[in-house]
């Protein structure tokens, strides 16, 4: 029996993957699917792909493209979420500040270098006209690490998906002082070269099963309650999240949108240059449109 490992953040975005994996659709072919929760974010998943610690990862778009430019040989086989990610801007709950404009220093807690919590700081800096040279970062690993390091006398910002952090905002441990959406579709499906060579067509069959599951979940009346139970999130909050979230349901990729997204990343300093799609896409397994 071979094991095909799929890694993603332990968040509600990945519920379609959990549903498909629970069915174990490839056992008759001698392949077991294994889901791995990675709370440390996309930077850690890029490393796992590089070091063959996972076959597939659901990674933030900007994080994968930056790591691809830096030498990650893995390939993108499609989008997982077409809509932007809404990042909450958080500071310690006991801070006297109530807005981004009240902060005297532009210091950030991040999961690790190259993760979305790091790269989205540059998006926020551009929006607020901050000098990116003034940004300072402290690596804390994940959400629990951020909570542990938060100090109201020295409020450092922590960017994280707003619905994931809401229980701690509601409890007063964190204060959300704003939001910043990613200027591009947020999650991509990445497969290592070893996975593509070792599992072949099964990689794309799995992707398409997830696309079908995502399509079903979009229209099912039970989706909100299912995700609420699976991730212990408030149904009212999930309805708000669901209304602005668009799971991908096919391997269609807009070349114009992808190029525009990379152009924005270059302006932000995330990428050095626009990458050639044929270098990081499996061209014959996606539907590239203009």
From the structure above, extract its key features:
alpha/beta; 12 helices; 22% strand; globular; D-Maltodextrin-Binding Protein, domain 2; 5-stranded mixed beta sheet; 41% helix; 12 strands; 2 domains; 290 residues
Give an overview of the whole structure.
- With 290 residues, this protein is α/β, with parallel strands linked by helices.
- It has two domains: 2-84 and 184-289, D-Maltodextrin-Binding Protein, domain 2, CATH 3.40.190; 86-181, D-Maltodextrin-Binding Protein, domain 2 (3-Layer(aba) Sandwich).
- It is built from twelve helices and twelve strands.
- The chain is globular, with a radius of gyration of 19 Å.
- The mean pLDDT is 96.
- Class of secondary structure makeup: alpha/beta
DSSP, total strands = 12
Silhouette? globular
User: Total domains, how many?
Assistant: 2
Tally of individual helices: 12
CATH superfamily of the largest domain, called what?
Answer: Periplasmic binding protein-like II
**Largest beta sheet, briefly?**
5 strands, mixed
CATH class of the largest domain: Alpha Beta
How many angstroms separate the termini?
41 Å
Q: Mind telling me which CATH architecture of the largest domain this is?
A: 3-Layer(aba) Sandwich
In terms of per-residue confidence, which ranges show pLDDT below 50 for 5 or more consecutive residues? none
Strand order, sheet with most strands = 2-1-3-10-4
**Residues in helix, %:** 40-55%
Q: Write down the oligomeric state.
A: single chain
Order of helices and strands: EHEHEHEEEHEHEHEEHHHHEHHE
What fraction of residues sit in β-strands? 15-25%
Mean pLDDT over all positions: 96
